[in-house]
Amino acid sequence: MKIALIELREITYKAIKTFGYTDDEANVIQDILLFAQLRGNNQGIVKLIGDGIPRREGVSKPSIVKETPVSVLLSGNNTHAMLVMNEATELAIQKAKSTGIGIGGNFNSTESTGALGYYVEKIAREGLIGMAFASAPFQTTAIYGSNEARLCTNPLAYGIPTKDDPIVLDMSTSSMAYYGLIEAKTAGLDISDEIGFDSSGNKTTDPAEVMSGALKAFGGHKGSGLALVVQVLAGAFVGADSFDNESDNAGNLVIAIDPEIFHDLEKFKLEVTSIVQRLKSSRKLDGVEDIMMPGERGNSFRAAVEASNEIEVEDNLWEAVKALVE
């Protein structure tokens, strides 16, 4: 159904507040969820349904465990990952502007970081190159050659400034983000039998069976290798757990780099813009109207949504979100 943006913002904010977050925390979480929702990304308001995102009792604000001039390691202290990752990103930006590079990491965060594109776009709009990685001990994805879940969906993202909108590559290393399965299940839709396995290791088109089984890594052994690297960078490197479905010790890593450590920023942005333009002018395949750069589809989707002041939300999903506040 079509939902007015003003209603979307009102209802989602109220829904987040039902989980016990402060006004400031709710604003941050809503900003991250709607970044995804308004770009047609499955990391949006679907995160509010089912068990949702309850604020843990007895949590405290993220605290600095170790710091150097270029890096900071945070303990999330069981705070929601969106709040922890947002703080790590802000600190990485500050350090990059001071020293040329900033690295923020955390362990002991809970729930999902949301769309990693949110954080790297924030970095890129500061004229910096951004990288982000997230992992969790929640095992959803099989390594190539197996049908047993051992890895999480292990997303990664890059943000690169240009003279126009930043390049934002945001992707899961699994064949589908876990919340994509939840969206499909909520809508009563089947998925491709190439997405994952049921609990017995058989192919299935039922998203619920994949949720109790295992997603595949995207792209065979190549995607599987990327998933492993993310597990190391956002897991072992920052002190988070890797293989324990009962653990809340998830981890994130975010990196901000000032292009000025090598080149003049404006010259760099001009060169990146030239690369984009040259790629977009490539000879197109039949049926292709435009060659899209990473993040461009989402930008176009958001522009259309904001121009119309309304967005299409799957009926069951919207009813489940509204039920939180009713």
Estimate the global geometry from the Cα principal axes.
globular
Number of helices: 10
How many strands appear in the DSSP assignment? 13
Task: Output the strand order for the largest sheet.
Answer: 2-3-4-12-5-8-9
The CATH superfamily of the domain at 58-261 is Malate/L-lactate/L-sulpholactate dehydrogenase, NADPH binding domain
Whole-number mean pLDDT: 96
Could you describe the largest sheet, including whether it forms a barrel? Answer: 7 strands, mixed
Q: What are the low-pLDDT stretches, counting only 5+ consecutive residues below 50? A: none
CATH topology type of the domain at 58-261: Ribosomal Protein S8, Chain: A, domain 1
What does this entry look like structurally?
There is one protein chain. The protein is an alpha+beta fold and 326 residues long. It has a domain at 58-261: Ribosomal Protein S8, Chain: A, domain 1. It is 39% helix and 20% strand. It has ten helices and 13 strands. It has helices at residues 5-17, 23-37, 81-99, 117-124, 178-187, 207-211, 220-236, 265-280, 296-308, 315-325; strands spanning 2-4, 63-67, 71-80, 101-110, 129-135, 141-142, 149-151, 156-160, 167-171, 196-197, 214-215, 250-257, 310-312. The longest helix is centred in the first third of the chain and has 19 residues, at 81-99.
